Amino acid sequence: MKLWAISDLHLAIEANRTALRALPARPDDWLIVAGDVCEALPLFAEAMAFLAARFARVLWTPGNHELWLTGRDGGPRSSAGKYADLVALARRAGVTTPEDPYPRWPSGEVVALLFTSFDYSFRPPEIRRDAVLRWAAEARCVSADERLIRPAPFARMDEWCAQLCDAAEARLTREVPPETGTVLVSHYPLRSDLVRIPRIPRFTPWCGTVRTADWHRRFRAVVAVSGHLHTRRTDWRDGTRFEEVSLGYARQWDRARGLAAYLRDVTPGGAAFF
Fold first, then answer.
1. pLDDT tens column, 215-226
2. Residue 235 falls within a domain, yes or no?
């Protein structure tokens, strides 16, 4: 029995959809999907049902692309409202979401699905919060999140992120028993020192929050899973294995290998990749 992980399937891309349809079944294993499945609700529902039929259990947490409001799903509303719709669709397919009880892996670890978002704090210390968009724009690195995510009822993403982190932190403290290990799952990397994206160096403000930097220690993470960066890699911090598990856009992976080759084994105590 294995615990696999992948993120950033970006199923709006035809090559990625084709690869997903060819994914072999692994009926004894679990699959973590760490965000950025797609933007459209019908395609999201189809993907969740497809994966749930191929794995013993599927666990999902949202990325920024799921929260985008493109006008194709019923007109303007909040990204929080769209998230509620995504949760309902995932549950209908039997997929575990961040709003559900934390599952336990057979060896005892709690698999904690985190929805934390970003608050621009992954920026250089000399850049003020009120200057961060201008600084990123100088290098043409302003994220589309600025146009397509609406944080209402919050005025700014910073405020929504703070509320999400408060809720996640309280829940981890309350629901993970002392001395119990965890697998922490987030779309965003938990630490800024894991962000290495030289092709878009000023994109970092949209890559997470410093609020989560010590969660791997505080909550005894054996493995921390994330995506978002499209830079598949393994890192180690304080004895915790950090796995970036993105598939990415069609140009960022080898179609000849198939999607199955990009599933990462994040089974507690299992093999690591470098």
1. 999 999 999 999
2. yes
